[in-house]
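ARCHIVE CARD
Drawer: 12
Card no.: 0347
Subject: one protein chain, sequence and derived structure
Cross-reference: see card 0346
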Amino acid sequence: MSSNDTTTTPDNTPPGTPPGAPGEGSGALSGLLRVLGAIERAGNKLPHPFWLFAILSALLAAVSWGLAAADVSADNPADGKTVVVRSLISVEGIRSMITDAITNYATFPPLGTILVVMLGVAVADKSGMLTAMLRAGVSRVPARWMTFALAFTAMVSHIASDAAYVVLVPLGGLAFRAVGRSPVLGIVVAFVGVSAGYDASPLITPMDAVLSGLTTAAAHTVDPGYTVTPLSNYFFSIASSVVLAAVITLVAEKVLARQVAALPSDTTTMGDDADPVALELRPEERRGLRRSGLAFLLFLAAIVVAMIPAGSPLRGEGGSIVESPVLSGIAVVLGVLFALLGTVYGRAAGTVRGSRDLPDFMAQGMREMAPILVLFFAISQFLAYFKWTGVGEVLAIRGADLLKDLGVTGPVAFLGIVLVCTVINLAMTSGSAMWALVSPVFVPMLMLLDVPPEATQAIYRIADSCTNAITPMSAYFVMALGFLQRYRRSAGIGTLASLTLPLSVAMLVSWTLLFYAWWALGIPLGPGAPVR
């Protein structure tokens, strides 16, 4: 699904095995490598996320039995009702697990949303539009703007999910080499932009649909009617993509450029035909992008014009725009939009030859969704059990009471979430799995402290992203190292870690500060989504 949803490394090849990792004897880097190695060993012992949530469900059953036997309860300040823990190991609990299993899965909030969005995204992807769009973002860019252009294109590339790595990372090396700069630096900039900035984008991405669905499910613990849409962090995400691209550019030019220049000189010159993607767009691809761009403007104009009349069916109750069907049903709108753009591009570029191609593309996209659909079944059951037992609600209430007693405010709690999730992300690289694990506690707990779910989700995005570029538990770390070795044979895990660490740290700090500034100014995180 995303870099954050990668759980294994290829074929038992440990990231630390590439030969000749330079700098392993230096003090700071040697210490970093030992830490990364320990993380890798610990992470490799974790089961697949599917089995992880199955194990957690079993543990929850045991915990709920013990808490129910002890008559543990808590008073919910939101409605004044007393929440009593119920045991899964009971007649009622066992019946619920069996009879509600299908309902738990079918009504899992992210399921329908992500499927509808991906139907359209699959057409845009399989038609070649997304790949052409990414290549267009860095082709013919002046050398002085190349770093920022590549970094910002990486932010846009998140719409393509995992395909962004396969396309943009090698493309970064090509683009930098084309303007006479080190391809090693280009690969690092592209890799960090895609991985460490994964949850920031000027576009709505499939991950927005997944996170918002999980946040909605967690918010229902306190408010059953609360809905978090894929647009809930859109304003913050746009600003984040620009700020992070600027931070990557600054650190790359001021620090990494010198670091790359000081690396041992064993660069291997590769022909363009050895790279998986070509930099230049073909005439038909440029024609396709022009026409799909025009289609996007016409689609947007049509929606705006249709929403102008006060009695428009695209407006919500009382003429509301924020609560309109367009925003509440944004998954459908996005699915249709991407399908339209992919079709227009494909017809112009020659990749869509008939109407049969569209359902075929959608079917291919659904096949690629199979792993996440399997994971969703385990997650949906665990979250349903968590809600049914009342354990999550009791934890949230008791946690909120503890924070109040300690005088901990929202901003202080935010920092704690960033630190905890950042550390977890080093070993659990599946962003959806980690949010499914922690959101049932963090979201309602902070809601009881008057922090909107959208704000908790926004701070989670930061923690879920920045360490993706340094953890050896990500298969894409290994992949990026492979691309790096195409230009520098002696590169090892130490080389890549030493180049990505400054960027990851700078992004974590700057992105966190951006959120605090956003919070202080009270700027909405998205349409109808207050930050506080």
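Annotation on reverse: Strands lie at 73-75, 82-84. The radius of gyration is 24 Å.
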